[in-house]
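> @MW can you paste both from yesterday?
MW: sure, first one:
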Amino acid sequence: MSPGRAVAARLLLILAGPILLGVPSSGDVWSYKEGEHVMLTVEQPCEIVMAAGGLPGVYRLEQIHFHWKSEHTLRGRRWPLEMHMVHFDRQYLKLNEAVRHHQGLAVLAVLFYETEEPNKGLQTILDAIAKVSHTEKTPYKIPQAVSLEELVPDEKNRFYRYAGSLTTPNCDESVVWTVLTQPVPIGKDQVQQFHKVQTHNEPLRSNYRPLQKLDNRRIYLQHPSQESASNTKQHSWFITVLLLAMLSVTV
């Protein structure tokens, strides 16, 4: 089950190399209300992928959504916001097919910490949410580009890895989880904006799942040595791919 907490006694050290993540610089975003999430869904076929870092395959981005507070705990605390980038193994045509297979999905989790300054990438999404009808599922096109580069940390070589499930129904046990250890900033006022998101005509104060039992699962920690990290940087292990994507945001 997911989410879990990072407990030092249960961690196993791995040296699998960094996550290779293709991140789009911009995209046309559509917004509409449905369910209890702020969600961006990517038009398929999408060439934004997640690979390497010990992953068993190459995974294509399907959607991005947010939870407040965080669903995972790190250093014994919940963080004000957590973003999930949901990918499916590209050997399958659709997420609905991949979810039925072992390790068919890969979710990249990013934690956020509060600052005084707003996160520009998040603000673009929040501005769109404020304009969404809460009674109709009417698409809304964001007039400016959305930069996902501002939503992921620079350091993708340090992360926790475990086998788990989706945190929303049907909670399918087919997910390879990667939780990045470096958090991303979010403005204090932006945190409050998430807490004011409307669902069923009332504010959605929180939408995180309680911590689940590990059930003898192993949590792996990717934490390379300084020498390894230096070599990684020198040889440009990380590649930022500029792609145009059609996205939709759901509240």
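MW: second:
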Amino acid sequence: MSSRRRIFVVLVMLILLSILYVSLSPYKEKQRTHSLNAFQDNNLQLRQIICHDTDTRLSAMSLPFSDDERTGITNELKREDKPDNSGAVMYLVNYTNMFSQNSSTPEADPNNASTVQTWWQAAAMIDWYYNGPVRYTCQHIKAVGNWHICQDFPYTVSPPCLVYSFGINYDFSFDNAMISLGCEVHSFDPSMKLETHKRGNNSAFYKWGISNVNSDAYQPRRDMYVKHEQTWKMRTLKSIIQELGHEKRVLDVLKLDVEAYEWGIVDNLIQTDVLKYVRQLMIEFHLFPNFPARSEYVYLYKTYTRLREMGFREYATWREPRNINERRFINQRAVDFVNYFFN
């Protein structure tokens, strides 16, 4: 084929390709418009699900989002789910009948913390928190010594896990069980006649206590564990994390059994913003006849309420001594929480 003939053939092919491109352009534009409309429709569908359809909210997760976007949407959906405390009405009525000396005491709204004004209203709400329905149904509860953990994803506790255990009283059954799971375990109790020491390759005991203040000369109140005058080393959780070099670690399990000191500690945990690093929280709550003072009960109730509202949901509670009367008021309960918003 001559060079002139080859040039002619190439020109003809270019002309044909140009005609084909022009003819397909409207179709491409239609397809692009259709894709954009589909994307907008999906976004509108998502907004409708989030705002209006409480029964099918989580179906939004079937839409095409990245993992980070999906996590953010899931957490936003969770945060919209406010606990309903209407079941506490009967607790408020019963406590008022037992303890109120003034018939003109304003009624408390169980869904409005600001309306709880008296010690017995606060005690009634705390009792409801102890005994009301759990707000997270754990499918895989595992016994670990004398406590329990939830092994549902994303709360699963597995190596390299980190555990802080406050309040031992010579019973290391929980701590040993967590060591057996492959966790790094740090045990704390200033009341025991043991000095700080390494317990094993991945565990240690500290003659320290957790508090809402830092002190090297803290004098505890007398109780069944403190028979004589003692001086304790006390640290906030934030300070302990710093001293042990765990600032960049997730605290998989935080256990507190500290004989009514937990109320001030929880307030400090909230104030110092360390709870966002905690995967699971175990607390034995105590209301003793003379400690804390009844004048503090409204504050205790509001502290517990703040803990719940920031995403710590009960998956199990365990009965402890309970005596609801004026002279010897005692109400204790061990409560296991998951951090519902944990990522």
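> thanks! Helices lie at 3-52, 67-80, 89-99, 119-131, 173-180, 237-243, 262-271, 297-309.
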